[in-house]
Write a structure and sequence with these properties.
The protein is 40% helix and 17% strand. The radius of gyration is 20 Å and the shape is globular. It has helices at residues 17-22, 33-49, 66-77, 91-102, 120-128, 150-159, 208-211, 223-231, 241-256, 259-280, 307-316, 343-358, and strands at residues 6-7, 57-58, 61-63, 83-88, 107-111, 132-138, 140-141, 146-147, 163-167, 184-190, 201-207, 297-300, 319-320, 322-323, 332-335. It contains twelve helices and 15 strands. Bound molecules: pyridoxal-5'-phosphate (PLP).
C-alpha cells in the first residue's frame, strides 16, 4: 500500500479526502447566490466553533494566509484607537510588532526571549503604569509550541481596562479560547491549520461593535469593508472560491467529529505518542508538555545529528517535519499532529522515528 506524504509541519496540513474533493467542485461566480450561500455557511460555522452569538460577533473571511488575517485585525482596529502592548515571545509576536509599525499604530513591545512564558507580574506592572488600551498576543506561539496563557493575560488586561487582540492562527479550533470570559475583541485565524482546510482563506472573529467605528490603515485588509459586503451576501474582492469550498467542508467535518474539544484530545494523544517515541530514542522536548499546545511540540536536535539528516530520513519514510526558525534553526525541530492523520500513519511514524534515531 502506498501513502501520500504526511505533513507534520504546522500547516498547511494533510487534507482528508472529503476536503480535498471539495477543491474541485464546479466553477461559480462570486456574484451569484451559490457563492453567497457558501460564504454565509462558512461565517455561521466559524461563529459556531466557539458558540458565539451572532448578534455580538461576526466573522469576515478574506482570501490570504493567516498573516493576512492578523494584519487585517491590526490595520483595521489599531489606528487611532490608543496604545497597543504587543507581547512577543516568538516569531509571530514579533511579526505583530512589525505590522503595528508599518501601519502606524501607537504601540510598544513586551519583549521576552523566544519560548519564555509571559510573566503575570511583569505584564501587570506595565498595565498598572497606565496608557495601554489593547494587548495583542499570540495564543499558540508556533515558534516553540508554547501555549500562552490567555486566561491569565486576559484577566490582567481586564483589571486595567484593556482588551485583547489575539493571533490564534495555530490554535483556533483545537484549544480553549475564553471568548465568553475574557475581554477579547478580535481573534485572527486561518483555514489551513486546526480547521484542516486548504491554504488561502483566513478570517477574524470580531465583535460587531468594534467594527462600527474604525479608521483603517489599509484597503484590501480593511475588515469593516469586507464585513459590510459580506453581511449583504457579497464580497469586497475576488475570493479564493475552491479554498472556500474546502473550508466549508473542513468546518462541517470539525463539527461532526466533536468540535474543538475532540480535536484537542486527538492532537494531545498523537503528540504524546510522538513525544514518547522520541524520548525512547533519546530526544528531549524544548518545552514541558504542560506548557505546550496540543498542536505542536518542539524537540532539541540530538548532538550528533543535523536537522537535514533527520528531515531527509523521515521524508524518505513519508513524513515531513519542520525546522526551527531564526536563532533556533540549529537547535530544534518541530512536529505537529494537525491534519487528517490516522492511527496507522502514527504507527508508521513511530517505526520511522526508531529507525532514524537509532542509526
Ligand atoms: C501559521 C501562523 C501564522 C500565519 O502564517 P501564514 O504563513 O501567513 O499562514 C500566524 N501566526 C501564527 C501563530 C501561526 O502559527
Amino acid at each position: 500500500m502506498t501513502h501520500d506524504m504526511i505533513l507534520l509541519n504546522p500547516g498547511p496540513v494533510t487534507l482528508s479526502q472529503r476536503v480535498r474533493n471539495a477543491l474541485v467542485r464546479p466553477d461559480i461566480c462570486h456574484r451569484e447566490p451559490e457563492f453567497a450561500d457558501l460564504q454565509a455557511a462558512i461565517r455561521t460555522r466559524l461563529l459556531a466553533v466557539y458558540g458565539l452569538d451572532d448578534n455580538l460577533w461576526t466573522a469576515p473571511v478574506i482570501s490570504g494566509s493567516g498573516t493576512a488575517a492578523v494584519e487585517a485585525m491590526l490595520a483595521t482596529l489599531g489606528p487611532k484607537s490608543g496604545r497597543v502592548l504587543v507581547i512577543e515571545n516568538g516569531v509571530y509576536g514579533e511579526r505583530m510588532s512589525e505590522m503595528a509599525a508599518v501601519h502606524g499604530l501607537d504601540y510598544e513591545r513586551l519583549a521576552l526571549d523566544w519560548g519564555d512564558a509571559v510573566d503575570a507580574d511583569t505584564l501587570t506592572a506595565r498595565l498598572k503604569a497606565g496608557g495601554i488600551k489593547h494587548v495583542a498576543v499570540v495564543h499558540h506561539e508556533t515558534t516553540t509550541g508554547r501555549l500562552n496563557d490567555l486566561t491569565t493575560i486576559g484577566a490582567c488586561a481586564k483589571a486595567y481596562g484593556a482588551d485583547l487582540w489575539v493571533d490564534a492562527v495555530s490554535s483556533f479550533g483545537a484549544e480553549a479560547i475564553g471568548f465568553h470570559d475574557l475581554p477579547i475583541t478580535a481573534v485572527a485565524a486561518s483555514a489551513n491549520k486546526c480547521l484542516h482546510g486548504a491554504p488561502g482563506a483566513a478570517f477574524v472573529l470580531v465583535r460587531r461593535q468594534a467594527l462600527a467605528d474604525t479608521s483603517p490603515a489599509a484597503v484590501y485588509l480593511d475588515l469593516a469593508r469586507h464585513e459590510q459586503k459580506q453581511r449583504a451576501g457579497g464580497t469586497a474582492f475576488t475570493p479564493a472560491i475552491p479554498v472556500f469550498y474546502a473550508l466549508a467542508e473542513g468546518l462541517a467535518e470539525h463539527a461532526e467529529e466533536g468540535g474543538w474539544p475532540a480535536r484537542q484530545a486527538r492532537y494531545r494523544e498523537l503528540a504524546e505518542r510522538v513525544a514518547e517515541g522520541l524520548s525512547t530514542a533519546g530526544v528531549s522536548p524544548m518545552i514541558d508538555a504542560q506548557a505546550s499546545s496540543c498542536v505542536l511540540r518542539a524537540f532539541y536536535l540530538p548532538q550528533n545529528r543535523s536537522y537535514d539528516a533527520i528531515h531527509d530520513a523521515l521524508k524518505q519514510a513519508g513524513f515531513v517535519i519542520y525546522a526551527g526558525q531564526g536563532g533556533l534553526i540549529k537547535s530544534i525541530f518541530r512536529v505537529s499532529p494537525m491534519g487528517a492523520i490516522h492511527d496507522d500513519d502514527v504507527e508508521r511514524l513511530l517505526t520511522a522515528i526508531r529507525h532514524t534515531f537509532s542509526d
